[in-house]
Amino acid sequence: MNRIMLHSNYWVLAIFALLIGCNSSDKKQMSENEISLRNGALQEQDYGHCDSLNTAGACVNIKVWLPSGADKVSTDILNAINQKVIDRINSYADSASLATRPEALTSAKGAAEVFLTNFGNFKKEMPDAPGYWFIKVDGDTLMVTQKIVMYQLDHAAYTGGAHPNSFRSYHIYDNQTGREVEAKSFVTDSVALLKKAEVEFRKLEKLSPSDDLEKNGYFLPNHQFFLPANYAFTKTGILLYYNPYEIAAYARGPISIEIPYRELNNIVNQEKLF
Length: 274
Fold this sequence. Notes:
The protein has five helices and nine strands, in the order H-E-E-H-H-H-E-E-E-E-H-E-E-E. By secondary structure, the protein is α+β, with helices and mostly antiparallel strands. Helix 2 (about 70-90) runs parallel beside helix 4. The strands form two sheets. A six-stranded mixed sheet has the order 1-2-3-4-5-6.
């Protein structure tokens, strides 16, 4: 009997030790990934030349934070960010231009060279056209936790017209896999978030609950208030960011609203973030 009990106790202890070991291994891996993803640096690339004093020339400036770790997760996130930068630059090129330089699809340098070449061709056709062309891309982390990397990517550009244009996007990377995750996957009740966002939006814009948003100049698809295409999670709350033209005219500029987690009544699943 004693031998049977000792044998049973041995297996209970063995399983318990295995579970603890697995948990410790997971926590260690989390910690190592978090440390690796915190150890990055801003990297800058400049192409072309802009003479802002004489409003001449063309240039591309890139300044983005990239993870420096050699592990697969860091490498995957680095590659994803680099591709987004390339795509931003190429959004100002046409398919014919890109076809002449295939490396523009996978290289920031190649994409910048297409942009500069297009400017040169434009000036040949319209030598007296005033102004200069530029693209500026900036990226940095908003937050790194044991579970995610919250990344902000901004770009501004001018290729003629009344004013430059700018755009901001947020990206969430799972720091265990390196894959990008949709922001909505952290929201437990999108309807409740939408209602809360509209309340806070009206407060920010000094509008009453009964004021008609469209009559006050806001753009509403299907005549309904909506969440922005891009939003982020910070250490203290959710950050809703409407780009220029997304819900209001360019002159209004971007509109951002931060709602603390304590006011969201578990609308955001913080356990998936931290």
